[in-house]
Amino acid sequence: MKLKNKVLVGASVATTLVVPAALVAANSEETKAKSLAQIFAEVEAEATTNTAGEGNGAETETAPEQPATPAQPEAKSVATASSPEEAKAQAKSYIAELSISEELKTYTNQKIDAATTVDEVETQLQDVQELAVKITSLMAFQYLTATQKTVYSNDLVEKYKSDSSDKSTEYTTVFEAAEESDTLMRNVDTLLTNADALKQNRNLVYALANESNETLKKVQDLKASKEALDTKVTEVNSLKSDTNLDTVKASLQELETKKDALAEAEKDTDAKIKAVVSETKTELKNFVEGTSHISESLKTKTKDKADKTNWLSSLVELKNTIVALEEDTPVAVAEVNKQDAVHGETKYLNAEDDKKQAYDNAVKAIKDLLEGDKLNSETTTAPQLKKLTEDLKAAEAALNGEGRLKEVQDTAKAAIDALPYLSTAIKEHFKAEIDKQTLVAEVERLQKQATDLNASAEELINQVKAAIAVKPTVKYTLASETPDNLKTALDEKQTAGENLLTHTAASGETPESYVLTSKDTEKDAVNTAAKAIKDAIDALDGDKVLAKKREDAKAQINALEFLSDNAKSQYNNKIDTLEVPKAIDGVVTVATTVNAKAGELINEVKKHPNYKEKDGNYIEADQDKKTAFDNAMDAATALLENNLLREWVENLPEADAKLDVETKKDEVVRTYSELNGTERLNKAKEDANTALDGLNYLPEEYKQAKRDEINDASSINAVNAIKDAAKALNASVEALVNALRDAKAYKTNENYTEATPEKQAAFNNAITNGDALLSNEILKDKATTQEAVDAATAEIKRTKAALDGFKKVAMDKLNEYKNARLLVNLSRVAVDEYVKQINDLTNPTKEQVDAIVNEAIEVNKVAGEHIRLLSSATSTIIDKPARYENASKETKANFNNLVEQQLALYNKVKDAARGQNPRTLEAELKAATSLEKITESFNALSQAFNKENLKAAEAKPVVNNKVESNSDNNWKKWLWIPVSLLVVGTVIIAAGLLRVYSKKKASK
């Protein structure tokens, strides 16, 4: 069976639109409520998105879409098996994996078992594997039903079980038949889908839903075609869904024929839809062309839109709208054409203005839609046109001119009676004229004329009153009289205006009044009189004259040099309150006078800038006079701000009284004249010059220079500073003179004569420099400072103090004693300590130096006595005489300890001639080895000898460093030793001193 592989295509399929089943009826009121403009817009939108009803309905052959071939398992083989049994076993294992029925697997296994060779087994295996592949591919077909797949699968199995030797060819024949059937089923499904879409076509559904609508044409033909299509669809679906295995192949054969019939039915229905659209468009355009009340331009546009649309619904809406407008337009035109007639009727002529306006507006609203007697508005709907017509009828009915004249006349006369500025005669005249009228408009015109005249009279009265009111003001009183007399001009215009009026003076509680007098007075005359008065008032320039006067006065005040902005502002503010030129001049006079006095005060204050720091007459004055001037200046400056008078003075003082600024200025002048600083400064200068005369140590040239400085000085402090500096310098020079005199006399003193050459040279240089400072008369230069003189004096004193003659003599003496061993009881180091004490003295006197030398001699003397006593004590301890043995144990212990402690004060020295010498004072002089301490030690040991059993050998204590002894013979026998030593020492010292003296004499 060869299929055609054709599919019906066309616009009706491609543009199918599913629409709701419940469609709006084609003749519903909703379709009539749309304007042509709305439908036109919808048509334009449709034209850009749809092509409904168009297409040639031709068939286009398309290649059937082939189903995807399922993946096939790899073919297995047993050809390499070594035996039929091995081949059978392998083949059965392969068959178990195949996607075939169990019954077929059993059948195949039986065929395998019956085979006797490996080749036979291989043939059976390959046949069943190919069968499995075909069945799998068959089952993958997309469009065959399950029944159809079963039938073709059974055919394949039947071919397998046959005795045919070429099963592969037979499999292919069955498979190709199944494949063609699958393609047929696919094409049938496509046709059925297209049929369903076609039956939902918007135009088809709309046409069938509105088949009775007269606008739609050829609907019955479309209906019959659609029913035939439904029949074909039913037949095809019946064959397509056959589930009988015995008849399914026959159904497929018949389905091929039915498929073509279905395609033809679809093409016919599609053509019928197009025919309905085409015929309906033609009928609509013919109808539009035949209308009588639609403008030609609107007809043309409507037909153009009909050509553009492909929707039946839009065509019906156009028809319905045109029909409705065609019906309603002549009714509206008839009402509009009545306007001229209505305008001539009393009901319109005497109607209220708003009602006449409402009627005319209603006529215009319809006229705006027309072109002549034809509708020319595409935006107007039939209901809107009908509503406008009804509104016009209602507006005509509302015209209330009939019977309104009397009412309007009464109202107008009452209004005229209420006009306050017209005389009774004028009012009666207007009312009589109103009674004569037959038209409301004329009545209203007369009422307006009276009202306007009343307004003009009111304006005239107001201007007359304004003229009366302006006369007491500066605007009138100060008005110019040249070149034109503005006041006279106003008087004349006022009189002319008053001549048109009747004036009634106030009486009791009744106020005065003005009314227009004559009924013959025209409104223009009244307006002219009122304007003349107003212009005359406006021409008055008294206020400008006053403003100019004020401006000139303010300019004078603002130009005043010594008034602050605040003061000027106060004067200007007062001027703004004055309207009399003389009073304004008075303010200027006050301000000018105050400014002059303020200037005197300010100039006086300016004479004393920074007076507290710079004005000697103030600075050196007595405090009470300074305080008085300070108070006067403070009071003066308190009136000022930035050297300007801060506050204004409103009025000048009376009679001979003075302004406060003048009083404050006079006080500054008076208190300054009483300052005596200059007088006191001159007295201080006189005293200073007198003091200079008495300074005898200063040269005259220097004193004259200082006199000049004093005379130029601006303060007492400066004068005193110069004087005090000169006195101090004089004292310094005097001190230098005295220092030089003393220094020269001191050169005979041992402290100078025995000093080292360096010290002497420094002292001599200081004297020389001091002499030079005086002898060179350097003080003639007034720039010579006191420091230079004081430095020269100090240098003389310093070098004098540095002279070391006393120290040198004393140190030489001690060193000679040491070298001659005259201080036998002192070690050399101890003697050096005394030498060091002398050397460390600063500017010592001879007494200070001699005191140290004498102390060394005394220490040596007392130490000798102490050593003797220690020797005696040591012998006692060694020899242990009865006086020692009989002492208590404690006494002996204390004695022993005391001796031991005191022995520690001395160092043992060897004497080659005498063997072991007891001791000498230890190397370094300490607190324990001073003269006082050694004396105390001697006395302590002496007391120990005189205690208890030791009394056998008593020792006298040292008194005033003199040793007195009342000891027994044992004690006295030791006395020769220190005495001998003392004598020998004295001789040696004398010899040494004689030798030193001889050397010095020889050196001189």
Q: Could you tell me how far the N terminus lies from the C terminus, measured between alpha carbons in angstroms?
A: 176 Å
What percent of the residues sit in helical stretches (DSSP H or I)?
55-70%
Low-confidence stretches: 1-25, 52-64, 909-919, 958-979, 996-1001
Which of globular, elongated, flat, extended, rod-shaped describes the shape? flat
Structural class: mainly alpha
The amount of beta strand, in percent, is: under 5%
Q: Specify the number of helices.
A: 44
**Arithmetic mean of pLDDT:** 83
Number of domains: 6
- Order of strands side by side in the largest beta sheet? 1-2
Rg is 79 Å
Major sheet, described briefly? 2 strands, antiparallel
Keywords: Coiled coil, Membrane, Signal, Transmembrane, Transmembrane helix
Organism: Mycoplasmopsis gallinacea
Pfam family, one: FIVAR
Region (Disordered): 47-84
Report on the structure:
Keywords: Coiled coil, Membrane, Signal, Transmembrane, Transmembrane helix. It comes from Mycoplasmopsis gallinacea. This is ECM-binding protein homolog A. It holds the Pfam family FIVAR. Helix 11 packs antiparallel against helix 12, helix 26 packs parallel to helix 30 and helix 39 crosses helix 41. It is built from 44 helices and 10 strands. It folds into 6 domains: 183 residues, no CATH class; 70 residues, no CATH class; 135 residues, no CATH class; 131 residues, no CATH class; 123 residues, no CATH class; 199 residues, no CATH class. The longest helix has 42 residues. The strands form 5 sheets. A two-stranded antiparallel sheet has the order 1-2. The N terminus is likely disordered. It is mainly alpha-helical and 1004 residues long.
